[in-house]
Amino acid sequence: MRCEHPPIRKEYDEPMIEQVKNWLNEQGYPLEMRTASALRKVGFEVTQSALYTDQETGKAREIDVLAVYPDYVGVTRIAFFVECKSLKKPWVLLCNPEVFSGHHRVYSFAAVNKNAVEAMVAEPVFKAFMDGCPWFCKDKLTGYGLRGAFTDKDIAYDATIGFAKASIDFVNNSKDYQQSLAFPIIVITGPLIRCVLDKDGEIQLEEVTQGEVYFKCDLAGQFGVCVKIVTLEGLPDFAREAWQVAGFVRSQLGEAEAKLWEKEFASPYPAELKCLVDKEHQRASGETKDGASPTHSK
To answer: How far lies 14's CA from each of 19, 20, 22, 29, 266, in Å?
Structure first.
């Protein structure tokens, strides 16, 4: 005789569902899901709860969202490592126009391996990046510090060190014939405030939907990397912008990709692969997967 469980009474069911919903919101799971959806929508291959190896401890750790630019070849790897933070207080980005004085332009663009660095500093590729990629030429104010408003705690290190390590692990585990770039990103639910001194030495504050902080580090050959900070409000625009940047990077590193392929496999770069890559370049430079033109948010 089959034993059937009695149905859950409605008066208990609704409060329980609401409690679970509140708990999920507190843990940040909806933010992770929305972030993954926004990146997947424009064309990235997305993995949630991806694992990476902490280079210092050797232990496996989890990153909220990993978005990878589609790749048919296996030589040029472009990835975005995303940490999601549910906030109750604003974050303040402390900025200075001289943040990058004396710093390496390529290393401040992304976490990169040796092959990617060599390809990006070569002419005319370097000039193309300076002329055509705002993330590279840094046409916006960059932060040197990140603070949680209404608290004395310095959150910059705690908020960035984990997935900065994830990005570095990604590029350092590249094969000899690969050129790899990784961008660390934080998506937050709260407001982001940019703070800078004006010419009279007065503090100027502006609410923005995205910004970046230059995270100085000396981890496994990386000397510093910029961490993008994006609000939930600005996420759709940022996803389209990231897709466009990734496509631009891939197009500029195409010649280096072919040379690395031919050196590793001792054979000409396959024409059919070049056709697929060129088609992807055209799509990334003109449209996102959902048909919207990429934009640059403020």
So the answer is: 9, 10, 12, 20, 64
Q: What is the pLDDT of residues 182-235, one digit of tens each?
A: 999 999 999 999 999 988 889 999 999 999 988 776 655 556 678 899 999 999
Cross-strand pairs, 187: 84, 230
Q: Which residue has the tokens 């396959």?
A: 270
Task: Report the distance separating Cα 40 and Cα 153, nearest Å.
Answer: 34
User: In the chain, where are the structural domains located?
Assistant: 11-286
Spatial distance between the Cα atoms of 168 and 221, rounded to a whole number of angstroms: 9
The number of residues making up the chain comes to 298
Is residue 288 predicted with pLDDT exceeding 70? no
User: What are the DSSP calls for 84-127, one per residue?
Assistant: EE--SS-EEEEE-TTTTTT--TTTTTSEE-HHHHHHHHSTTHHH
CB under 8 Å to 149, separation ≥6 — which residues?
Answer: 89, 90, 91, 92, 193
Relative orientation angle of helices 254-265 and 114-121, to the nearest 10 degrees: 130
Average pLDDT over residues 61-84: 91
Q: Which of 109-113, 185-189, 201-205, 267-271 has the least mean pLDDT?
A: 267-271
Helix, strand, coil in percent for the chain, rounding step 5 = 40, 30, 35
User: Which pTM was predicted?
Assistant: 0.84
Q: Which two tokens stand for residue 271?
A: 């024409």
Q: Answer whether 64's CB lies under 8 Å from 84's CB.
A: yes
Label residue 36 by pLDDT band (50, 70, 90).
very high
How many helices and strands, by DSSP H and E, does the chain display? 9, 11
- DSSP run (H or E) holding 68: strand 60-68
User: Where does residue 152 fall: left (phi above 0), alpha (psi -120 to 50 degrees), or beta otherwise?
Assistant: alpha
Give the span between the Cα atoms of 67 and 236, in whole angstroms.
Answer: 14
